Write the C-alpha cells for this entry.
Amino acid sequence: MRRFALIACFAALPAAAEVTSPSGRTVDCYCTDSQGGRVEMGERTCLSVGGRVFMARCDMSLNVPIWRDTGESCVTG
C-alpha cells in the first residue's frame, strides 16, 4: 500500500498532461508515490493519510497535480 505522496510538476518535453508555461513550453506533470516513484495522470492508488485509507487518482487542479479522493474503498486481498 502506498502512503502519503508528494506531488511534482517539472518543465520537460511534451507529455500526457497538457499544461504550458507562460513561455509556451509544455510542462510535464505527474504525481509521486511515497518512495518518489512517478505516477502518471489518471492512475489510481490506495493512500493512507492521517489514519484514513482511501482510493485516490492522480489528477490536476488549477494546473497543479494532486491526489483526488475517488470516494471508493481500497481493494484488499
User: Anything to note?
Assistant: Residues 7-69 form one domain. The chain is about 0% helix and 50% strand.
